[in-house]
Amino acid sequence: HSYPHCWRCGTPLLYYALPSWFIRTTAIKDRLLAENEKTNWQPPTIKDGRYGEWLRNNVDWALSRTRYWGTPLPIWECPSGHATCAGSLAELSRLAGRDLTGLDPHRPFADDVIISCPECGNQAHRVPEVIDVWYDSGSMPFAQFGAPHRNLADFERSYPAQFVCEGIDQTRGWFYSLMVIGTMVLGRSAYQNVVCLGLIVDDRGRKMSKHLGNVLEPISLMDRHGADAVRWFFAAAGSPWATRRIGHAALEDIVRKVLLTYWNTASFLVLYANAAAAQGDCWNPERTADAPPVPDRPVLDRWLLSELNALVRDVTGAMEEFDPARAGRKIAAFIDDLSNWYVRRSRRRFWEGPGTPGGAAAFATLYAALETLTRLMAPITPFLTDYVWNVLRGESGPDSVHLASWPAARTELIDEILAGQMALARRLVELGRSARAAAGLRIRQPLARALISAAGFAELPGELRDQVADELNVHELAPLQAAEDELVDYTVKPNFRALGRRLGSGTPAVAAAIAAADPAGLAGRLRASGTAAIQVGGMTVELGPDDLIVTQTPRSGWAVAAEAGETVALEASLTPELRREGLAREVIRLVQDTRKSDGLDVSDRISLRWATADPELATALTEHGPMISAEVLAVDYGLAAAPGGLAASRAGEAREHADASLGLTFWIRRAG
Question: What percent of the chain has pLDDT above 70?
Fold first, then answer.
């Protein structure tokens, strides 16, 4: 025979047939299947799969266990074999002829109770078995109230539960016992919605075990990474029903990409609100009413509010469908957009302060986004969001985010066209950055122009074109159109995997036709309309972007990047004027880093003096002095009049800084 073995000690396990007490669950099999049909399972496959199969193959429940600890089976037997079941301590008192309402209903006390058999009058003793602990768990809905003997109204208000959640292994445990006992005793299942959790394994995919030494204690994880990071992992870092790998790296990733980014964005708003207050223009949430109406705000604000309300709609839908992972993905993506696109692109307006229309719009928009985002995140990350809420909330706001209402989406602010245009603009920016990186062009080095070829580019609003030009650091943005063939050489190859799935045995003939076609013409048609037609054996075959692998090799003087029919070509040649502007931007970066390292506040105005032996750098610093002064908040700017710079006039207040790669020495101090 082949025997199972004990996983702890490795010895064989032997099965023995023993007498047992059963509940005839097979008698209610059809009722259980009907209750299952009314239940919303997540994932839905569990209903007819794992759990449905368990119900369809239902056998009677072996209720008794031959153990000492547990709930004693309340059955008394006499020598004649008559069995009496006591349903309460009051009933047991009547059977025993004495008051047992204060009895501890466990062994050995229950074993000491002897009753007279109601059928024959002989003494009856309790049977030695205890009840399966899953029966205790399944009785929880009414046992917690003591119902039906007391608190019946409280129980009826809470039954059935709207939601239960446990590991997927509970399809044969708690989920089953709840449904069986509820259906047998009360005529309906104990729950309406179920989320089955997958197993949690270590970062190598192994089951956690003391034997392997890979157990991660929850409290230790919370102490190291924070409770909210652990909560986010379990709720939103993957489908709850999927097996997930947990480790310190996964939690550190959540903290860095989600929680810290959210925290830093909230800190950004507080920082610039305080900076405005220091300049005598205090901003608080009540001033959101001073901002221009949403339709009159800059395109970035309208886009963010559109994305925010789409987020509210999507997260609400995901939560109502018991899918926190989808909600988490949406929230994480929005946080990234908020920090790495909106805030970065709007920073100048925050510098201007809330006293300008653009600044007022930026403050109001960012506050609305953070306030709503905090409410959306609160169920998953209750501690961090409650802290941020109390920092951000206005005078009329609830004391806790958990006392605030769930946000409702303002669908009139959702602009799908603008969302698509912004997505295109950001793709063009990414292509431009790729082209710069491939050509070794620093992002701070201005270029003369960028030529764009992409469906929808002509319809981009002027504001969005300006955003793209500023991100790419180019003076001019223009359509590529006919000039493209002069910039690159094309290679077009068939994508055999995509063609094979679609065309099967016809793939070789189509591949040969692609190889024989004019690469530039094929790529141009694909870019213009999204498809390209070729003739194969007298038949026309339509090809899409996935069917072709288009490679562009830039010609000298251009940096080109393309993907999925969209192309950005950067003119890489530099004039002396462009080189000097690039030097000025390098100086701005250097001074900004120095401001930060010297502990200056973002609103601090400075005096700046510089010295250099490089004539081109000196020309750049003079020529672009106004731009440098505006960017670094220098109210006093110029060439150092004497050795020591500012230190010569105000000893001890200015620090000397030097950059050997630029050949620049400069001195800064707070103005005043």
Answer: 97
Residue 202 reports pLDDT greater than 90: no
Ramachandran bin of 633, using left for φ above 0, alpha for ψ from -120 to 50, beta for the remaining angles? left
Are 462 and 598 contained in the same domain?
A: no
pLDDT by residue (tens digit) across 559-568? 989 888 898 9
Residue range 217-241: mean pLDDT, rounded: 89
Handedness of CA 470, 472, 476, 478 (dihedral sign): negative
602 lies in which domain range?
Answer: 576-670
For residues 50 and 174, state if they share a domain.
Answer: yes
Whether the model pTM is above 0.85 = no
DSSP type of residue 208: P
DSSP notation for 330-374: HHHHHHHHIIIIIIHHHHHHHHH-TTSHHHHHHHHHHHHHHHHHH
Is the confidence at residue 634, as pLDDT, over 80?
Answer: yes
Q: Average model confidence (pLDDT) for the chain?
A: 91
Please state, for a pLDDT cut of 90, what percent of the chain lies above it: 68
Instruction: Looking at the structure, tell me whether residues 327 and 256 fall in a common domain.
Output: yes
**CA nearest 133: which of 215, 72, 224?**
72
Give pLDDT tens digits for 84-93. 999 999 999 9
Q: Going by C-beta distance under 8 Å and a sequence separation of 6 or more, which residues neighbour residue 514?
A: 492, 493, 494, 522, 534, 543, 548
Between the CA of residue 115 and those of 34, 73, 96, what are the distances in Å?
41, 15, 4
Which of 602, 634, 606 has its CA nearest to residue 621?
Answer: 634
Q: Are 31 and 183 in contact (CB under 8 A)?
A: yes
Nearest to 328 by CA among 308, 311, 309, 341: 311
What per-residue confidence (pLDDT) applies to 483? Answer: 63
Q: Give the residue among 643, 641, 634 at the shortest CA–CA distance from 668.
A: 634
Q: Is 340 left (phi over 0), alpha (psi -120 to 50) or beta?
A: alpha
369, 394, 414 - which closes a domain:
414
- Closest among 386, 392, 382, 469 to 425, alpha carbons compared: 469
